[in-house]
Task: structure prediction
Amino acid sequence: MTGEKLCDLKDGDFFGEIALLYDTPRTASSKAEVRSMLFMLSKSDFQEVMAAHPAAADPIRAITKQRLHKYVLQENVSKVPLFAKCRDDDAFLASVVDHLTVCTFAAGSYVISESTGGSEMDFISRGTLAVYIGTKHVNTLSDGGFFGE
Result:
């Protein structure tokens, strides 16, 4: 695993909530640099606690939305070629991010189908999609790609 170091976590910090709340792959990796003790909460237990305590869940959702917003803006939307000329317009990009919905698809799943009505535009955060017209493979899209425009 290689990549740039994003931050140092210390006592009381947390991570992993984006994947739990939005059912999406992890947005980063973590590595213990010194002997560390962590508390882990399974996805099912996390969801159970959130459902049992909806008022307490609201601040968690707010923090998660803020973190996801930063990740999506920095790592995804600002790199979409369609928005190349808008990269310096933080307000515009932030507005786009506010309107995005996180979706995940299993390998082999259809994301859209030919001849169906188009009501959204999709941006590929992570993954690879094959594009077909009929049965003919015409393109392959990956990270930063977009379709439905």
DSSP finds four helices and four strands in the chain. The longest strand covers residues 136-142. The mean pLDDT is 78.
